[in-house]
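G., the chain you wanted modeled:
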Amino acid sequence: MSNRLCFVFVKLAVVSAFVVTMVVAGCGGGNGPTDAGDSVPGGGADGGPAPAGGAGDGGGFQIWVSVASSADGTKLVAVSNGNINYNNINNLGYIYTSTDSGVTWKQTGPQTNWTSVASSADGTKLVAWEVERIYTSVNSGVTWKPAALPFVLTVSGSVASSADGTKLIAVSGSGSGTPGIIRACAGARCGPDFRLCIGKEAAMTLLDSLKKQTVIVADTGDIEAIAMHKPQDATTNPSLLLKVAPLPQYRALIDEAVKYAVTLAADESRRRSAFMEKLAVNFGCEILKIIPGRVSTEVDASFSFDTEGTIAKARNFIELYRRAGVAKERILIKVGTTWEGIRAAEQLEREGIHCNMTLLFSFAQAVAAAEAKATLISPFVGRIYDYYLKERGVKDIPPEQDPGVASVVRIYNHYKKFDYATQVMGASFRKTEQVMLLAGCDLLTISPDILADLEKREGELPRRLSVEAAKASDATPLHLDEKAYRFMHNQDAMAVDKLSDGIRHFYADARKLEKWAADFLDKVA
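Predicted structure as tokens:
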């Protein structure tokens, strides 16, 4: 093959806007130069790329695996396997970059197991695939940084990207000759969103579909689980912290809380309280590093009937977050939805401290919280479901007849019909179907188990809740003073029972966390 034909092929391979391709043409010649700065890396005497599937005429050709190009073809990244043996995965991986249409390549490797690259439209945002890692760069591939991802990708034979760099498709397999598994994703943070399917672009999952309609909130204190599912927001409470705080991976957060607590007064009770407050904030800060939205931090249930005490605790949380460099706009203070808690939220909202009203079971609680202008409420679907299972003496209630789901629908319709700014966040789910029936709700806070189940299922969820449907509902205006609130709430036996039960359980878990904290402080004293 002539020099001219080889050069033309290179231009065709890389100048096309945003191309990632397997280079299959070759040039004749002997062993070409492979040092950094050489004219086309690993080429033959003609200086062109070697065939992707064979040795070519010479015997020292590089195997080109993929090439990524900017829209105008001036910023390029190429991957070569560095060895003629294409079946040897370990030989994949020489990364080359260029800023002049491929005429002069610079080798940035070898990186032992690199397989392919993709580029954004302007060539400044790149994704590279290795046997076990994904790397990203914003400077044309000169400096690569490992992306912290919760999965291992085996080998990607090629990667294709959309023009804006937000949609990627990768072909992977255990080695060359493997037919390949296609993984696809969409979104600005593509890596962890890859879906698996065989022989076609990945189908939409129920979680994907739900995210299009509803803000997803992770209901856990497990930072690793939050990173895996990538919700918008996250919620925590003493019960959740009790589960994860003793885990070894969070020891640094514990140690920092200890240092904070021991700097305060020698009073043991105050130190335990300070430790728990700082621990909650430490977890919140870590969570905020991996989510784009807000984290909810809960006031101890012992303040459920103490308006001033709740306000003081909330202010202290906000101050601790401020010292950690977190703005109050990213924090929701979780407050129990008692009359006293509602009044505390009303004052806090006036101060610009946003509240998440928890332990909410009755319609009266929902109306009073909205009139107090709380930022959002968390009606507990699962606990209402639990109550009626026991009350009716049954093992299950069909999702369409679920009183917990019905409660959220009623509240949502009332809020939207009468233009309350307070948002509705369904919470405390027992099964995936409860979540599915609330698609379209403002927010849903979901446990990692149910998030994983939604992620496994393919399909699209129909919208169940909408402002349009709410406006057409038969909801009637309602305003509640303290007397009306207490009477209306008292008429709902389920709500009275579950609110009291919830306060007791949250209080008990907080005391368990406090005891654990006391024991921990004693050990390090």
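The first helix runs from residue 3 to 15.

Shout if anything looks off.
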